[in-house]
Amino acid sequence: MITMGATDKTSLPISGADGLTVGWLHLQVLPSTKRPNTLLDFQKEDNWDRSLEPVQIMEEQEYLYEFAITDASKESLITVEPSWLFERDDKWGKRGRLRPRLHTGAIHAQVFVDGLEVGRFSLEVRSAKLDYLKHYRWMLEDIAEEFAEIVMERFAASEQRFEADTESSAATLYQRFAFVQSLLAGENFDAAIQQVLGRPHRLWTTEEEHRAPGRGVPSGSAVARQMASGGPRVDWPGGRLSHIPSQFIVQRTVETLDTPENRFVKFALSQWLDVSVRVDQVLAGEKETGPALRGRREARAVIEYLSQLLAADIFDEVGPMDYFPAGSQVLQRRAGYREIFRFYVQSEAAATLRWEGAADVYSAGQKNVAALYEFWAYLQLANVVEKLCDQFQRDALVEEQPDGMGIALKRGWQKPLTGTLMRHNRRMQLDLYFNRTFSQGDSWTLPMRPDCSLHIAPCEGDPAPFQEVWVHFDAKYKVDNLLQIFGRVPEGEGGADAFLKNEEETEAKKGTPKHADLLKMHAYKDAIKRSAGAYVLYPGLDNPKEPFVAYHEILPGLGAFPLRPTDAGAAEGADSLAEFLSKVLDHVATQHTQHERSRYWLEEAFEREAPVLAPAPAAPFVKQPPADTPVLLGFVKSEAHRQWIGEQKLYNVRADGRRGTVEERSPELGAQIVLLYSDTWDSVDVWAVRGLESLTVTNMVYLGYPDPGGDLYHGLLLRPVDTAAWPVQLTSAWVKHVREMLKPDAEHGAPVAATWLDLIRHKPS
Asked: Residues 111-150: pLDDT tens digits?
């Protein structure tokens, strides 16, 4: 669809310090550009958004430019600041390529001829999404409403001020104006104020009027009482009475628009007008820079709009507000009035709070919709998490500052919003962070900073604890659909190669591959410790795709979810995100998942104190990792005992309660390998365990066991192990050393359970 103002080329004036035109910047769309609306020119149009510059280009596009400076010679060197935007094609800088890359918002440029500034010009870089201004306004409204609710929980609406706050800083003043400007630009406000102007609230009041008898007096008990009362009287010729009162007091009912509700509407409009006027006055005292001129233009547009509204006939008879009608059912329920009441509360919240993070979102001349989307997505994610929790605390969003209350939400904020819930008999705590930094200790590579990070951990004292889990989200406003993140792998032979080749070509051309966001999700999941998932949030219209899973369960995983602002306030896509997070919580709360098992053993393997091991030859007969290979250190009391073991392929341990007895479920009976040592020789016999059986003294005598001393034994069934390929010689001294390290208090000759890692770790020096 072609937008009003679309063109292939335009020229914008370069203004000197005196405001006169000193030259022109000619812009042209490249002939190869196929995207419509790449260049917009509203310099000769009456109907366009005055908060933007009249000449508008688009992010990630490329343009041809040429300077025509009146007083520049052919050999004059022309330079521009910001220089990174302009790549010259000739020696003198008169022609070249304009590349805004990913920058959005206003650009205020300075032009220099041979090093001396001659003039300035401004242009707008639009987002590739043509509806980004609507999204910007809707998200700003959502954020204002979010913080307004928090403020209203602490301060009653009736406590809000009735006059302009002259103590506000310039930054806070513009912050408040930005909220007001966003509210007034919306269709919801326009519809609300038109309802108020078209169907204003009315009251019928009773007034007393002194009326002479000749003007006619209505009958009634009040008039009858006045007929008989004292006071000045006049003759009544031909009447039933000889004289009557010279004046009657008559009550009449009249309609009025001077109601508390209409006074409030007038007050709110006047408050917003005051803010806009003050912004214009403050900027008028600044140097005439591009941002200052743009800010004044924005303020004057709002001033004009509000002045027109206040000039409406209904406000002629409406007086000043003398009390705040917070309990009015008209303000709370009637269409038009309730919306303006809500808008007022939102704007007052913006004035009450100071938001440092706003510097990343807006200034006089910039509307960073991508940065705003990150803040907005975090608050939407907080709404989703809150609905999943039994209890949820938002107080951390507002904090006391030296000069009042402030919004804590800003880049690098380390304080989370916290909630708790019960799932599958596990009490869980959820901590939602914005822009948390994972540095050394949390990330095993370089520091990482996802936009949003959800920490899932057991509550303190939970009877069924589990290993903590991190799930990360990155907000990407510039992503339109899933294909931009995941791409589409061509089918057939060579599909993957064709896909990667296309990505390499894209990267070479634009500097960023289409699936770079997916690679970043991999980095979050794999580099940040205890991370189990990483997902992109983007304002697309397509349906969410099932996230990628590493194995068979929802975690570990990667994916993307559309999350889109709307004019109604409810984020589109929030339900799908809530359904996914609910499944994640079910997964983490379920004790028998493969993921829980892997997290447990990962903790066991890596989070304990790391052993310092010298390289050792691998033992071919050890099939599991050494730490998971149970070993029995078995004592052989004599040569006859050793010979019997070799013949019967059986090793016996006591089971009848005597000293040194091994219980039925003890780790000694779970060994996979038996190492037999002795006090009389230094070699060690290595056997593998193939089974277990119980033996009575009768069985032992029948098998020829030398001198059985008990009634019952556990018998480990053995098979030979070929140790010829292992170039290490085990010794009885080595085994005794390990035994002493593991169980120094064990009775002499009693079997001791160990692992193959214990054997390697405690090798005598």
From this structure: 999 999 999 999 999 888 767 878 887 887 788 777 767 6
Can you give the residue ranges of every domain in the chain? 9-126, 132-200+259-367, 203-213+225-256, 375-490+512-597, 626-761
Q: Whole-model pTM?
A: 0.72
Residue 683 DSSP label? B
Q: Nearest Cα to 123, choosing from 5, 225, 247, 213?
A: 5
Lowest mean pLDDT among 197-206, 283-292, 528-537: 283-292
Judge residue 131's burial from the number of C-beta atoms within 10 Å of its C-beta, 0-12 exposed, 13-18 middle, 19 or more buried: exposed
The residue among 71, 69, 101 whose CA lies nearest residue 85 is 101
Q: β-pairing, 391-393 with 417-423? A: antiparallel
Nearest to 105 by CA among 298, 354, 291: 291
696 Cα distance to chain centroid: 68
What integer pLDDT is reported at residue 350 of this predicted model?
61
Given CA atoms 319, 325, 328, 334 in this order, what sign does their dihedral have?
A: positive
Quickly name the fold that domain 9-126 has: Immunoglobulin-like (2.60.40)
CB atoms within 10 A of CB 272: 26
Residue 351 pLDDT: 61
Highest mean pLDDT among 198-212, 335-349, 412-426: 412-426
Cα–Cα distance measured from residue 373 to residue 475, given in angstroms and rounded to the nearest whole number: 7
Confidence (pLDDT) at 162: 44
Highest mean pLDDT among 213-222, 322-331, 621-630: 621-630
**Alpha-carbon gap, residue 40 to 56, rounded angstroms:** 5
The packing angle between helices 369-388 and 574-589, to 10°, is: 50
CB proximity list for 704: less than 8 A, separation 6 or greater: 644, 647, 648
**Mean local confidence (pLDDT), 222-248:** 75
Print burial letters for 728-759: b (CB count within 10 Å at least 16), e (below 16): eebebebbbbbbeeeeeeeeeebbbbbbbbbb
Quickly tell me which residue has 């194995």 as its tokens.
551
CB 22 within 8 A of CB 119: yes
Which amino acid belongs to residue 391? Q
For 317-340, what is each residue's pLDDT tens digit? 999 998 888 788 998 889 999 989
What does the mean pLDDT of the chain come to?
Answer: 84
Phi, psi dihedrals of residue 652, rounded to the nearest 5°: -105, 140
| Integer Cα distance of 428 and 385 in angstroms | 12
Distance (Å, rounded) from C-alpha 422 to C-alpha 462?
10
> Whole-angstrom Cα distance, residue 105 to residue 124?
6
Structure tokens at 516: 């770079």
Report, at the CATH architecture level, how domain 626-761 is classified: Roll (3.10)
The answer on pLDDT for 352 being more than 70 is no
Rounded-to-integer distance, Cα 119 and Cα 20, Å = 9
Distance CA 289, CA 296 (A): 11
